[in-house]
Design goal:
globular; 4-stranded antiparallel beta sheet; disordered N terminus; 35 strands; Neuraminidase; Rossmann fold
Amino acid sequence: MKNTMHCAPTSMGRSFVPFAPFWVGLALWICTVCPQNPTLCAQSVKQYPLKDFFRNPEAAGYQISPDGTKLLFCAPYKNRLNLFVQEIGKDKPLRITDLTERDPLDFYWKGNDAVLFEIDSKGDENTQIFVVSPNGGKPKNLTPFQNVQAAVIDNLEDHPTDILVSLNKRNPEIFDLYRLNVKTGEIKSEVENPGYHDEWLADNAGVVRLAVGGTGETRSVYYRDKPGQDFRTVMTVNYRETFKPLFFDFDDKHLYAASNIGRDKAAVVKFDPLSAKEVEVVFEHPTVDVETLWRSKKRKKIIAVEYDFEKRRLEILDKEFEQQFAALKQALKGAAAEIHVDWNRDETQWIVYATSDRDPGRYWLYDAQKQKATPLSATMPWLDPEDMAEMKPIKFEARDGMVLYGYLTLPKGKAPKNLPMILNPHGGPWWRDYWGFNPEVQFFANRGYAVLQINFRGSTGYGRRYTEAGYKQWGQKMQDDLTDGVQWAVKQGYADPKRIAIYGASYGGYAALCGLAFTPEIYACGIDYVGVSNLFTWLQDIPPYWKPFEFQFNEMVGHPVKDKDMLTAASPIFHIDKIQAPLLVIHGANDPRVKQKEADQIVAALKKRGVEVEYLLKTNEGHGFTNEENRLEAYMLIEKFLSKHLGVPTGEKE
């Protein structure tokens, strides 16, 4: 089971990235100590320095070599995250990179003798792939192409030297597939993209046999039996439907996929590409999508399915793994609520990562044969989980009766009544908030704020109807859901209606601007982080590799010509006269997804009107601040801004 991990902490610039991975039932927060007099529940809670939430982790992303003899992880060096390799049984790790400009975006083993990592330049998302020896030495750039985005499609763990990568160097809008030799650097065309295929799947022998893609109202699944053959269309579906290939079965005749075809919620299914029919529904859930399947390649077994309902759930499907997992939990002695595992080739040595809403996470090396867990490192050992706040799953009805889900975090040690509150809409918007440790949320709670996160209509994870309810509803019903959530929190008595801020990133930044423009009476201030201010200029400036999805953007957001009036009504830049509350804008100059002009134009327009606006622009960042010093500067500014306008004291001086 390949399990690559990002080593950057979850914070601004991470939680809203629509590629990467993340974390419903009403659970009202009740003070069980003295419910009749909640003010008596207030108690002193340690206030941590801001940097403790947003500096780089102590160590993260542990992975074990295929032969089970070495560990790979990232840790700080000279203010950047660098890669380290440690032989199991030895105390001192070896640093194998000397990165000083950017943190690696991802990293992983290639066999036992090579480490791959991906990195971009100043946030431009033109990712390049490097290889370095686990014994150290100078890393080699395997994809030294300018203005090209490289991505590893398949690590081909059974091949000694080759990996499959996608590159858009022939056409910036289209990604072709290449076979790359990590030892020699030789790169050869594997499949020239015949159209707009955006997903590829290789079988267990490393042969690319499946592709998915489309540009208009439909998406198709393409299949071939052998290398060199042309792909043939086996199935065409509406773009609103999901067919996400996961991996081929062990006999390479069938494949597993996450599919909502013929159903509202995505289920994990077994699929026959020859007949284009589902052979079996492996697992489905009545409330949420299911898209993650665990397998044991050694035993050739499907062992578990993973999904998120309120919290992450693991449904174990294999008796032997059930016993193994029970032994693991016993060895960890109740370390945390969520347990993630990765293992070496023979599945005897496991890397275990345990975390929760209050625990940033810690790593163990687990010997599955001896059933012994050896601690490796905590990601943020300077934070005590006992001092962190609990994240509660919530649900409530929107004004039109639609049931919405989300999370409420209330500061520990304070009465849950009339609190200053931050509404924190997620990015995407085709994404969702998850239960789990979030440094940003915990920082706000540690300062005394309640934090409300709502999976408004349009969010993913709750089925097609939930997502499609948000189509062409930017700034409209999607925004109403956020407003209804605030009113719910006020009605429940949690939030002080005079001390509410709205802060979000990406789509969440857009939602913050909409909140100030369309419901100015609700918010005392707002923070827009890499958000859209003008839907026309944003749609016009999307990166070239998003062009194949232009039809979907027009259908899901709006068409610049056909829906001109709607997009005008939903663009905050055209409603500057309604914005009264102070605004903080944060942006990266190299953002390819939301261009700098989205920040520039809203700042200039508000300054012209005399509205209080602060602006932080970083010339070496993109769609999210990666560099530690930039993150710290941004959050220091955020803390001061919120303190000024919500009347909450700042923490100790940095």
